Amino acid sequence: MLLLTFAHRPEARAFLGHFKRLKSHPRQKNLYISPEENLGLLISGEGFLQSAMSLTQALAICPEINYVLNMGVAGALINSLNVGDTVEGKTIYLGKDAKAKKMEFKSFPLKPFCKNLYSFDIVTSEQRALTQQDKSYFSHFGELIDREAWGLAQAASMQNITMSSVKIISDELNDEEFCQIVKESAQKFSEDLLAFFLENTSSNQYQKKVSEKSELEHYLSSHPRLFLTTAQKNLLKKYSKKIKLSEQMIDDIEQIITDINSKRPKDLSKAIFEYIEEKYSPVTYNLGRFGKTEILKLSNQKIKFSLDPLFETSAIHFSGNISSEKDLDLISSTLTKLPVRKWDSVVNGDDLV
């Protein structure tokens, strides 16, 4: 299945109007699916972290997705690109802070989508590039600028999903009021992108390839004591590319099932997947375990904590509400318990967990 992604609804409006069988998924309202047309559409939101989380959720919900096409608007970082030009991405870079001249070292190559399009490098800016100075710095790394493609590419890469990016130029290098330009021309941009898509795709182009189950998939999915959710089955496909079933793994899994008192298949499956996750990526598994036991457990009725799901940064996010001095005291007390230095050290590999 092909999944189209857009940062904002106005960019996708023409597609939602044309593909009338697209229906909002009950488990993710910004995800629209049409099994009959073998097509999905995701409104990812703005910002690389938001887009990464949105796509990660969509891929877990719909394991049929095997191709991601990011579409939408992008700003020009070079003078030769004009408003309305349709181009495609070649490589995506993350611009963390133009003023501090900070870039993320990790980049993602994209699959060419259309041989008739010019391709350019994309810089996904962590913050909106509001000044010519910001654009000037980012222009050293790419010719296009957006706010979501890098996060999408990271999420797709982690699931071994192919991704392309087709953009329509919404504002030129010297435009200052680009937000207003995009707002006023959003419908036209969306219609032009739809016309391009219909001209360059066919309905059966992205049919899902049928493949045999791996030994690990077959063993777990057919085990009489286990029940696998759709998300777990999707994860299992990913794990099977790196982990091969062995006699020792079978012995370990059977021992886990024997040791757990609960007879509920879902509880057993959860324990098995923790075992497999640790084998697949010990570092990520241990980071997740530390985060749950040392940080997320501090959440209470007045303040909630969350972490970067990909552990790219050690930032601890929180939200809450204060309606009395008592609430303030509780939140203040909770914040002092956060192991900030320890967590930063663990994420950056300076300390072991």
Task: Provide a concise account of the structure shown.
This protein is α/β, with parallel strands linked by helices and 353 residues long. The chain has two domains: 2-200, Rossmann fold (3-Layer(aba) Sandwich); 215-347, no CATH class.
Descriptive notes:
The protein has 353 residues and is α/β, with parallel strands linked by helices. The chain has 2 domains: 2-200, Rossmann fold; 215-347, no CATH class. It is 41% helix and 23% strand. Strands 5-9-8-6-10 form a 5-stranded mixed barrel. Helix 6 runs antiparallel to helix 7 (230-240) and helix 9 (265-280) packs across helix 10. Mean pLDDT is 87; it is low at 206-211.
Secondary structure blueprint with pairings:
Layout: E1 2-6, H1 9-18, E2 23-25, E3 28-34, E4 39-43, H2 48-61, E5 67-76, E6 86-97, E7 102-109, E8 119-125, H3 132-138, E9 144-146, H4 149-158, E10 162-171, H5 178-200, H6 215-221, H7 230-240, H8 247-259, H9 265-280, H10 282-294, E11 303-307, E12 316-320, H11 325-336, H12 340-347
Based on helices, strands and strand pairing, what is the structural class?
Answer: alpha/beta
| Proportion in helices | 40-55%
Strands, count: 12
Radius of gyration: 23 Å
Regions with little confidence, pLDDT below 50 for 5+ residues: 206-211
State the CATH architecture of the largest domain: 3-Layer(aba) Sandwich
The CATH class name of the largest domain reads Alpha Beta
Give the termini distance in whole angstroms.
39 Å
Brief descriptors of the model:
353 residues, alpha/beta, Rossmann fold, five-stranded mixed beta barrel, two-stranded antiparallel ribbon, 12 helices
